[in-house]
From TrEMBL:
Name of this protein: Parkin co-regulated protein
GO molecular function: Hsp70 protein binding; Hsp90 protein binding
Pfam families on file: ParcG
Domain of life: Eukaryota
Species whose genome carries this gene: Paramecium sonneborni
The organism's taxonomic lineage, starting at the top: Eukaryota, Sar, Alveolata, Ciliophora, Intramacronucleata
């Protein structure tokens, strides 16, 4: 059972500047004001907390809203980074396959979204990497069958490996040592 998130509470109250646009064949997000104008200290942690949502429209809004905020945030994200650790840790701690996949993809996007973010994330590895260590080697053995989840990049073990490599590439010189301390079976992608 996943506890109710702040994202759902804020959305139900109408406090989030976001809505779903159903016109056309594809759902889209409509912002009530431009994402660049938002207070990232308030909204980005709420959207990251929303990654734990499993119901629509909350899940759709949280995932896509988080994506757009990371795309357009650039310099604002670095100062908010410490506030994102607890929502990321909670999302990974659910141990729900879908939530973990979404969160790992957002961690990769977060690290690549601006300069110095990868390096600023290194001190928080001890909080976010233990869950990854538990699932790093849980590979799906399907014999000679075809894994159609490859197309969606939903194999948890592969996604964890990609995330660790992204963290190492963008985390500076101390990243590998800290990853290796938390996940002893990790092999560097830089050497």
């Amino acid at each position: 059972m996943i506890e109710q998130t702040l994202f759902k509470k804020y959305y139900d109250r109408g406090d989030l500047p976001i809505a779903v646009n159903f016109s056309g064949a594809v759902r889209k997000i409509v912002w009530k004001c431009e994402p660049e104008c938002l207070d990232y200290h308030l909204y980005l942690p709420i959207f990251f907390e929303g990654l734990r949502e499993t119901e629509d429209p909350y899940k759709f809004l949280a995932v896509n809203g988080c994506e757009e905020l990371l795309q357009k945030g650039e310099t604002k994200i670095l100062s908010v980074l410490p506030q994102l650790i607890i929502p990321i840790k909670k999302a990974l701690a659910t141990k729900n396959h879908d939530i973990m996949c979404i969160t790992l993809k957002k961690i990769q996007k977060l690290v690549k979204s601006g300069q110095m973010i990868g390096e600023a994330l290194v001190p928080y590895y001890r909080q976010i990497l233990p869950v990854m260590n538990m699932y790093k080697n849980k590979r799906l053995n399907i014999g000679d069958k075809i894994d159609y989840a490859q197309r969606k990049n939903e194999n948890l073990s592969d996604l964890i490996q990609e995330t660790l490599e992204t963290l190492e590439k963008n985390g500076g010189e101390d990243a590998y040592i800290n990853i290796k301390y938390m996940i002893p079976t990790y092999e560097s992608c830089m050497f």
